[in-house]
Amino acid sequence: MYRRQFLIGFASLGFSFIPAHSVLAQNSGSVFNIIWRDIEVGYSSINLIKNGSNLIAKVDVKIDVSLLGIKLYSYSLKCQEIWKNKELLSLDSEVFIGKKREYSIGKKTPNGFEIDGSSFSGVIKGNPATTSYFTPDFLKREVWISTQNGKPLQVKCTRIGTEKVDSPEGFINATKWQVRGDLNMFLFYDDTNEWVSSRFRAGGSDATFILQNKIGRNHKIWNQS
Fold this sequence. Notes:
The protein has a single domain (about 25-225), classed as outer membrane lipoprotein receptor (LolB), chain A, CATH 2.50.20. Helices cover about 5% and strands about 60% of the residues. The protein contains two helices and 15 strands. It has helices at about 20-25, 220-225, and strands at about 25-35, 40-50, 55-65, 70-85, 85-95, 100-110, 110-115, 120-125, 130, 145, 150-165, 170-180, 185-190, 195-200, 205-215. A 15-stranded mixed β-sheet has the order 8-7-6-5-4-3-2-1-15-14-13-12-11-10-9. The radius of gyration is 17 Å and the shape is globular.
């Protein structure tokens, strides 16, 4: 499959490169290339950082679609989530779609998770996940908070089989999950419960996250939180 190269390089993503023994103990991360209509249009990176009893997740997404030098679409997201005992303590996310700004800011309170977002403000009960997808534990939760605009998304996740997905080691077998409801997509996790791909419809075509590189194990760090 022909792919036009848009990315400058792995180091340009702000990815945390630290000694391997520290990575395995305290940090992990993944970088995905985003492919749309056989064109590489951007990247998504996630860093997990264990800080005492807290787990910090930092997400960075950048998409640019151009034709003949004319920018048709741009999207950027910067998000930080703080988790403790697998519960979301805080969320701080900012998104630009072109020049339009969206956001999702929230914190855990005695009444629930309080959100101030560009499309929703209120309190979400229970133990919500987010749309950062980094652990399959999220698949068990029926409410995901949109990191784009703060909306609580009602979802149902169903395991539908296995599929071969591209990875730095070549094609690997991954468990395929279908997400339906307020969000519709497919998520893929390998046999160690690592997120290795996702796929969804955008502009009439499939957009696919292809794992480009990773350090440590995100799900292992999550399980230690």
